[in-house]
Amino acid sequence: AVDNASLSDNSSNLTNCSNVCSDQSEQFGRSIVDIGCDHGILAIALAATGSYQTVMGLEVSERALQDGAINNQIRITNFILKERASVNSGDNIRFGDNEVRNLSRNLQFRLSDGLKLVNHGEADAICLTGMGVITMIDILFCASTEHKGDVAEIERVGCKQVYAQPTNSRPRNLVKLYDSMATAGFQPRDERIEYLSSRWYISVQFSKVSTSPCEVVLPGQILTKLPDQNSMTKIFMEYVQHHMNWLQCEGMKTQLSKEDRRWLDFVNCQPTLSP
């Protein structure tokens, strides 16, 4: 059965993620892959935006995909359709003010461990949510053992864009992600932050800018440039202050990781973020 309370808690989170994913679709490609799609709610939302010709949900758990197939009409009703009681396969549905015809034509799901069942050219963009940074890095940068050549999966599929929303927004975890992406020639193009259910969620849009390693950009460099009136500015300031205080306390008890130290050095050099 669908946990409606849990779905409600996550709907804003997923809406923000789908918005980030659809904003630059025209420039960066027409196909997107949602890795670890679980019941498929984000993949459905992405298909409903109409921004991509092809949306593919990947999930390693067959049970999750089966449950998603059973529950999809309830989930679509709760997450996308406020005014309808049910949705049948191939129905025309509404997402906001936009009608999306025959959603099933541009939406598919595959039972896949990471990107293993994705071919080159099928993933202009990749979306990763609901997992930790280490898992994200393992999925994107593991060597492609089932295909020719010792190439990282993100390179093999020819991805141009990555959207990531880690479950843990601690600075050192984000720094590891940004470092890994820079090694593959990706830089952050957009950052967004939310505070939901007593947790911060940072969504990042990475764009392929080079075929070789590029300059590392630390987490928050885009958020620091937001105008004061932006609703995310206050949330980001609270995030920064909380983690600065927490890391300073941690530093008194144990040696901070190099990633945490780099982030603190960056924050302390930002006039708008210094206490």
From TrEMBL:
SUPFAM superfamilies: S-adenosyl-L-methionine-dependent methyltransferases (SSF53335). Pfam families: Methyltransf_18 (PF12847). This is Methyltransferase domain-containing protein. It comes from Proboscia inermis.
